[in-house]
Amino acid sequence: MKKNEKKDLLNQKEEKKTDETVKEKKDLVVKKEKPFKEKKAKWLRQTSLTVLLILIIVAACIGINILVEEQNWADFDFTQDKIYSLSDMSKQIAESIDTDVEIILINMESYEEFAQKYNSVNDRITVEVIDDVTARTDLTDEYGLTADSYAIIVRSGEKYKMLSSYDLYTMDYSTYEYKDRTEEALTNAIIDVTTEEKPKIYNLTGHNKYAFDYLYYFSADLVEEAYEFEDLNLLTTGSIPEDCSVLMITTLAEDITEAERDAILDYIQKGGKIIIFSDPNSTGKEMPNFQEVLDEYGISISEGVMLEQDADKMLYSTPSAIIVTVSPYTSVTSAANMNMNACFMTAGRIDIADSEKLEELGIEVETLATTGSNSFYRTDYSIESSSKTDADEDAGNATVGALLKKTIDEETTSELIVYSNNIFITNLQIAISEQYYSYALDFYNNEDLAMNSIAYLTGRDNMITIRKDVEQSTYTVTQEQNTIILCIIFAIPVIIIIIGIIIWQVRRRKK
Length: 511
Known about the structure:
Blueprint: H1 3-71, H2 88-96, E1 101-106, H3 112-121, E2 125-130, H4 137-143, E3 151-156, E4 159-163, E5 169-172, E6 177-180, H5 182-194, E7 200-204, H6 216-224, E8 228-232, H7 234-237, E9 246-250, H8 258-269, E10 273-277, H9 288-295, E11 299-301, E12 305-307, E13 314-315, E14 318-326, E15 340-345, E16 350-352, H10 355-361, E17 363-370, E18 376-378, E19 393-394, E20 399-407, E21 413-419, E22 429-431, E23 437-439, H11 446-457, H12 479-510
Parallel strand pairs: 1-2, 7-8, 7-9, 9-10, 10-21
Antiparallel strand pairs: 1-3, 3-4, 5-6, 11-16, 12-18, 13-14, 14-15, 14-17, 17-20, 18-19, 20-21, 22-23
């Protein structure tokens, strides 16, 4: 083979090899590009599906919201205390309404959602929202409203109650915070306009230790829950009025007269209902006429005071401010369906006659409230020690609240609820720290216990409940609770730091 032919053959082989190499590279590029395109297409498909799914979810949410809005279904409330729902008391009252009730919101659109909760329970309660009251001359003429008025009118027939924005909030002077009381105001307004006859509470006056100012908040509570509250001076009336639902007697500074005693005894024989809030007779003043009234039920209220030894049964370092246990199984408290505690300040003791004497008097007794098992009884007020001394008497589980039912005849029964404390229903300011105080009525379930007692005596079972409080509680703790809190705040962090240092030193030595 010639030299030139060999050279051409070699060139052809090189060119072929080069072509094959180029082809392989192209194939490699194609192979590399193909997965990228497939991946891109897959990503686009997934993104499209994701966007579609999001659109479906959004559309479903909008549709559900529209449906719920149209149906006016009640909101679901998963909070432990059901703070965004109507309380059981309000529901029971709303369900029991058998007349038409209107809730008219004048420039108060923000309250529509809450007002509709009553309608969802009972469709006889309707809600109307008005943002231009000048177009409703019937309302402006009847209620004196103007374009600038902000009000809620609750009416049924010819009865009505008008609430302003000030009625929907109250100031907590222990924390200086506003508390929402919209539900309380609306429910009480509904009761007010639908109640034919309001129970009437007469407060015996003329010999009281505390001025009416100290009972102002409690009396206001009664009025708000559709009771009538009126002072009664038996020296001027001569007898207890026929429309008296409950006679209320508070701590006496002096004895009642014989005429007053006889009027009360006559009231008892007619099946009268009485509630007594009485602090111990610390002055030892003789009160034979008042004692005759108590003798009808076989009881007496001590001159001495109850004190606590158990740190978990008193306000912080205050043995005279005892936390009493309220029995949940009595006629007064069973409808509340939960345990209650009340705080009695400088309470006495209720001494009850033996079973033989009670049977003779026709008395049945239910114990409503008792002290702790380590409480004691003191009659010597000159003792300054807050601890039990030899002069004091063991008095664990002493009775400080009782219901007594007296059978007069086969058709007549008189009832008495007695508490050996008066301070717990007053608006006496009790210091809870250097900066804050709280009214005695606001401690624990004091208000609930007093209001439930009135409700029981007047036969208003639908009013017996734990009143809803969704606000933050003030710092009213027992001595034991205060010790635990201080340990959590200070001791535990110190322990954690010490453990951390020990672990660090151990690891350092191992290195």
